[in-house]
Design goal:
four-stranded parallel β-sheet; Rossmann fold; two-stranded parallel ribbon; 268 residues; 9 helices; alpha/beta; 2 domains
Length: 268
């Protein structure tokens, strides 16, 4: 993978595509910020040592031509990763693309929105400042180890201000959850199978070298905890997402759909 920017676009897309091929093992080599002949030559030298398919997102014309010549000399295929989308959009918009490396990473209003969302996720993690939850775009609730914090961070990268509130057995939920306005934020409950939570929590205990007697990873205690949390979610009438077999990306996608549906209903 050769990129004239951070390489995140090509890496994510290529890994997602390769995952469709069962039983295939792939070794990846990533060369990023390739914006000069010197950096490109270094990347091509590495390709020559370990030949393989070369997927690239190099857009500068002379550098791209140099890359394609170099791959031809090595005897490997150079695949311009963005070309099919660029040509389709060029025809659709009726105008050529501005071929600027890293255009998606421009420091603009959306960038500052993402930074503000990340600050928000950190400031309102684990129920901190629950009285200010109404400032969020989404509020996630759930018992421990239902991926609330990483999901909030993932949403923040997409510019969504997300806060989370842990539901603790035997402890009253913050009153602020019941006082949230109907228009914002979207309140979402995260749950998981008790057996899976017990496994995750036991691994957590072992990683901390914590050997004190505790109900934290006790299966029966977790079952009661999950039931109690679900009863609260039903009282709050919020959508519930089972994260047992969902990745953080899938959970976040479901939450984004809920947010978009809310905004569409408000005419936003």
């Amino acid at each position: 993978m050769i990129s004239d920017s951070t390489g995140e676009t090509i890496s994510a897309a290529l890994r997602a595509t390769v995952a469709m091929f069962e039983g295939v093992r792939v070794s990846y080599r990533r060369h990023v910020m390739i914006r000069s002949p010197e950096s490109l030559d270094t990347a091509l030298a590495a390709v020559a040592k370990e030949p393989g398919l070369v997927f690239h997102t190099v857009v500068e014309a002379e550098l791209r031509a140099r890359l394609e010549r170099g791959c031809h000399e090595i005897g490997v295929l150079a695949v311009p990763f963005l070309d099919p989308m660029l040509s389709t959009l060029t025809a659709y918009f009726g105008k050529p693309a501005a071929m600027r490396p890293g255009a998606q990473h421009a420091v603009d209003a959306r960038y500052y929105t993402r930074v503000a969302a990340l600050d928000f996720a950190m400031a309102y993690d684990d129920g901190h400042s629950a009285e200010r939850l109404r400032e969020a775009d989404a509020v996630l609730i759930g018992v421990s180890r239902t991926s609330k914090t990483p999901t909030c961070v993932y949403l923040a990268v997409r510019g969504i201000k997300a806060a989370n509130v842990p539901l603790i057995a035997g402890r009253e939920a913050p009153r602020a959850l019941f006082d949230l306005p109907a228009d914002k934020p979207v309140l979402v409950g995260l749950t998981a199978k008790p057996s899976r939570l017990a496994q995750i929590r036991q691994n957590r205990i072992e990683s901390l070298s914590h050997d004190r007697a505790t109900d934290y990873a006790d299966l029966d205690a977790i079952r009661r905890e999950v039931i109690e949390a679900r009863q609260l979610m039903e009282r709050l009438a919020c959508p519930i997402i089972d994260v047992t077999r969902r990745s953080i990306e899938e959970t976040s996608a479901a939450i984004l759909q809920l947010i978009e549906a809310r905004r569409a209903g408000q005419g936003a």
